[in-house]
Amino acid sequence: MEKTFAMIKPDAVQRGLAGTIIARYEAKGLRIAGMKLMMVTEEMARKHYAEHVDKPFFPGLLKYITSGPVVALVLEGRNAVAEVRKMNGATNPLEAACGTIRGDFAQDKGRNAVHGSDSVESAQREIAIYFGDDEVLEYDYLPAKWLFE
Ligand code: IDP
Ligand code: MG
Question: Does residue 13 form part of some domain?
Fold first, then answer.
C-alpha cells in the first residue's frame, strides 16, 4: 500500500500537539509504519527542502525545523500521500480549511505544525532521509479489512 512521509514539526511538538495529530492520522485509518522523535540536522533539512534552498524564507525554515525535536512518521494507506496532504491543509494556515490540522492548530506559514510529502516519489526520497530500512515496519494491520472493500 502507498506510503507517505509526515512530520510533526517542532512548534507542534513544543505545544503538546503530537499525540492529538498522530490520533487524527490513526483515526483516518493510516497505518503507522515508522515513527520516531528526533532532531533534524542541517544536512537532513537541506536534503529534505532542496527545492527551497534558494528561497528567501529558507534561512528561517532551516532555523525552525532544526530548533527542537520533531516526530517523523511513515504512514501507509490507500492514497496516503494525497490523504495526508488533505488532512494537513494549505501551507498557509490562514488559508487552510477548518477541520485540517493547519487550519485547526496553526496561524503562521512559518509555524505550520506539520509536513506531508507532495508525491509518491517525494515520499520515497524523504523516507530515505529520515529512516533506515529496518525502521520502517511491515506488520499485520488488523483494521485493514474494515477500512477497505
Ligand atoms: P508544504 O509544506 O505545504 O509542501 P512548501 O511550499 O513546500 O509547503 O514549503 C515547505 C515549508 O516551508 C512550509 O511547510 C513552511 O514550513 C515553509 N514555508 C513555505 N513558504 C514559507 C513562507 O513564505 N514563509 C515562511 N515559511 C514558509
Ligand atoms: Mg512542499
Answer: yes
What are the residues facing 37 on neighbouring strands?
71
- 88 occurs within a structural domain: yes
pLDDT tens-digit series, residues 105-149: 999 999 999 999 999 999 999 999 999 999 999 999 989 889 999
Which ligand is in closest contact with the Cα of 52? 1
- CATH number for position 18: 3.30.70.141
Q: How far is the first Cα of the chain from the last one, in angstroms, to the nearest whole number?
A: 14
CA dist list (Å): 49 to 30, 62, 93, 138: 24, 9, 19, 27
- Distance between Cα 143 and ligand 1 center (Å): 33
Structural domain containing residue 70 = 2-136
Per-residue model confidence as pLDDT tens digits over 64-87: 999 999 999 999 999 999 999 999
pTM: 0.97
Instruction: Identify whether 142 is part of a domain.
Output: no
Cα 109 to averaged position of ligand 1 atoms, centre (Å): 6
- Atom of ligand 1 minimally distant from the CA of 91: 3
Annotated catalytic residues are 115
